[in-house]
Amino acid sequence: MEFIVYLAGQIHDDWRDKLIELVKARELPFTFVSPQTNHDRSDNIGEDILGNQPSNLYKDDAASSINNFRTEVLLQKADIVIALFGDQYRQWNTAMDVSTAISMNKPTIIIRPESLIHPLKELSNKANVTVDTVEQALDVLAYIFE
Amino acid sequence: MEFIVYLAGQIHDDWRDKLIELVKARELPFTFVSPQTNHDRSDNIGEDILGNQPSNLYKDDAASSINNFRTEVLLQKADIVIALFGDQYRQWNTAMDVSTAISMNKPTIIIRPESLIHPLKELSNKANVTVDTVEQALDVLAYIFE
Amino acid sequence: MEFIVYLAGQIHDDWRDKLIELVKARELPFTFVSPQTNHDRSDNIGEDILGNQPSNLYKDDAASSINNFRTEVLLQKADIVIALFGDQYRQWNTAMDVSTAISMNKPTIIIRPESLIHPLKELSNKANVTVDTVEQALDVLAYIFE
Amino acid sequence: MEFIVYLAGQIHDDWRDKLIELVKARELPFTFVSPQTNHDRSDNIGEDILGNQPSNLYKDDAASSINNFRTEVLLQKADIVIALFGDQYRQWNTAMDVSTAISMNKPTIIIRPESLIHPLKELSNKANVTVDTVEQALDVLAYIFE
Amino acid sequence: MEFIVYLAGQIHDDWRDKLIELVKARELPFTFVSPQTNHDRSDNIGEDILGNQPSNLYKDDAASSINNFRTEVLLQKADIVIALFGDQYRQWNTAMDVSTAISMNKPTIIIRPESLIHPLKELSNKANVTVDTVEQALDVLAYIFE
Amino acid sequence: MEFIVYLAGQIHDDWRDKLIELVKARELPFTFVSPQTNHDRSDNIGEDILGNQPSNLYKDDAASSINNFRTEVLLQKADIVIALFGDQYRQWNTAMDVSTAISMNKPTIIIRPESLIHPLKELSNKANVTVDTVEQALDVLAYIFE
Amino acid sequence: MEFIVYLAGQIHDDWRDKLIELVKARELPFTFVSPQTNHDRSDNIGEDILGNQPSNLYKDDAASSINNFRTEVLLQKADIVIALFGDQYRQWNTAMDVSTAISMNKPTIIIRPESLIHPLKELSNKANVTVDTVEQALDVLAYIFE
Amino acid sequence: MEFIVYLAGQIHDDWRDKLIELVKARELPFTFVSPQTNHDRSDNIGEDILGNQPSNLYKDDAASSINNFRTEVLLQKADIVIALFGDQYRQWNTAMDVSTAISMNKPTIIIRPESLIHPLKELSNKANVTVDTVEQALDVLAYIFE
């Protein structure tokens, strides 16, 4: 039995690589997928494929339609969703991905720093599990196989 | 035929009252519901009902469970969702409400200032309509009856 | 017991008025809703509400988002869908409305002239009933109460 | 991870072969399925299997029931739908396939020439992404693996 | 609180009238709907509305499409389904209505004579309650209000 | 706007009457429904309607089919579920009703004494809100209207 | 791509073996599953596993619960359903399996002799395709791969 | 064709090992998954991963969120659910797992001693099959392949 895990959220550090390393070290049967983590590519993908748009509004709309396409394809394949919220950005699409996953009955783990306990409280309450660190998220994943 | 509209989002100004006024003036058959708009009551509702909690983490969890209960009851009754994002707060529960509504196939309108076009692009792309002002949202509502 | 009927399709003649007249004459408990039947208003609604768009592509996208919002609101309220295809236009949004209605398990009647039997064959096969005239559609509606 | 892509739409040119070539060249893990692309066989399949029918109406109904059976089997297996609308035909079953796919939450790409922007506007607005060329559709597919 | 009850099954005696009488006598808040109980009208409705068909096969298909339309409209409104199987006919559409109702999570009661225990065993096992008489079905309905 | 509340759980004291009294005093627009609260009638309903059964196993099966019918009818009408677990009984059907309600996305409140915190922990975690007293459950209900 | 086909219906001749032979001869990638085709074993399975029951009613209920369990497991795995109705029996569980499959959106083929056109008309109208012979059903299956 | 079976229920004896042994002996293609069967680990998993909690209430909530995460992941993968209720514990989470499985349309077998016939009657009535022993459950599983 194999599980596909969608790694939503922050794209400005290497938390995904870290988690994947740890999972490999423990030889757990998880496959990971994620959104585009190259921020510039993600912002420009609309114009990269469809050509110049008349303004930032339309550039953003074109990019988001392709990002949403990608997310929807991968999220539907996923058995589990893990989302990491970082300190700095608004990350509304992370909140969107988590909420969508929960509505699709995908078991979901949120990773967030203590500073975000309050603003994330309603979302945390809806997710299955909320943890502080990547290591704890891994422990929850690994618990499936004990 | 009557429609129930859930007004998600910002609770720090009177945009809901403004919209309701405008709808009354046009005599349109909409009933409006919304989250708790008293910020302190919303933050304290867990302790108000369940008593003191051991720390802010648990206070927030208690409050959010009751806020989510309320939202879920009202969202399921709603035919339409309108969400206003303001400039200042992270409003992840607004993003959560919008995403949940879209997953429930509730027709959804987002209202947001120009400054939020970029961070909200993926969510806007998933909503039915995104507008800049409360008046425009009203025009979209009114269009149903033309 | 009351039934709401969504009247999809052609907006270039008065078939809706004709059907509604006939229903009134028979005193049947149906309420009718429909898309925007003013063609110009339907094409311009995006710019009418959101202001000028940079080109026809964006004007069309803005209009369609609001037309789709309206359709979605009314289709979800509907117990039954009737769609009339006329001889002249491509009417892909009529095909879209019918298919969406069928996917939502809304009992559906198609009205189409003989000339369209062939190009509409797959859609007709999926709808509950296909008829040639408005009067026949009315007979099917009335049969519910016999 | 493998993805199945249903290629709906125009059957009068070789756009499917072209797309499949390009995907092979890039070694992307997609499997493609499609409707019957032999137009005559598609029109005659009812009589080919069930024998002569009393008139074209019944011939078309017999054929469409078997075409719809095939489409339904393959569409349910598909992870992604791409639909190409050409300039010449009414292609209402293409519009039907796209709408059905969207109702089934299949991520969907529409390919259409500029001349069809206006008549397809509501359908484009509901699909995830609309592009002008087969190459652009391929770029969107490939983006899933970046 | 009112409940709508769909009365599926045998149309060759007056069991529906009998049940409705008994419900009125007890002043219970149920509204009853049912299929066309005039057998000839049910068999001829296709030709009555659509005109002569080339053979019995097509006459039956035309009639059944309109009967299925009616059933689907009324079944979707129903809160409860009661189906009576009689001794004499094959009544496959009764079995179809019951199975469809169960798949739609409509609470379902089957009424059948002892002689049908064996051939109906799988269907009885899936329904909520199976009884021998109309009076017992009424007792089950009435139990909701105790 | 009116809400229907299903009151699941313990039938050996008058907690339902108490809650209904309190709601009336506050003039809140809730209608309450519940399982059969007469324990003997609930145990005997199968034999009361269907006649003697060959042993307790069959008596219980007959009763439970009718109790489940009633619950299913009322639960589907309910907007909200409140379940009270008491100290003494196993109440597996209460656990069943709560789990079913949660699976149907009915917003759910559990009332349980402190002594049951541990054995009910997984169920409490899935419900929206868990409280200790009927008064607290009422406060949660009333919060919807603030 | 492999497809699983559930073969519902008549168990008193060897139509399943015949179909499976033909499929093998054409080297088509279908796997077939079916109900218990040993009539006695199917009737006795309840008592075979659970021991003697107090009467035929209970024997039938025990058997049907295990037959339904088997059908449900295999039907959920199936991509396609083919059901053959024979001349002689009432076969209400065949009608049940077909209706359940249709409600689960499983593409469905009915095979029936001409003598059953009339009594099966509503069910035929709901299935995707109705044919007269096993060979025709095979042709429909094979059409998926053309 | 392989089937995944979730083994819910009692964790204080070795019934799972016994069942798995018997299945291996018969060379049946079932894969088994189950909840955490180490009772202490299950009770402590919240604190083991998230650290000390302020009281037993919070310790239990933390543990249950991770246990529910595990159950949800595995239950969604399962084709079949078997639940064993033992004599001694309240096992409300077993009742919860069974009810959730039934709501998810997972074919379900309950194993329970005679002493539990009465308190489990509503749940038994909703499950597909109820048996007394592990061997009988195995016979029901094996029947799928006859």
UniProtKB/TrEMBL annotation, chains A, B, C, D, E, F, G, H:
<dbReference type="InterPro" id="IPR019884">
    <property type="entry name" value="YtoQ_family_protein"/>
</dbReference>
<dbReference type="Pfam" id="PF11071">
    <property type="entry name" value="Nuc_deoxyri_tr3"/>
</dbReference>
<protein>
    <recommendedName>
        <fullName>YtoQ family protein</fullName>
    </recommendedName>
</protein>
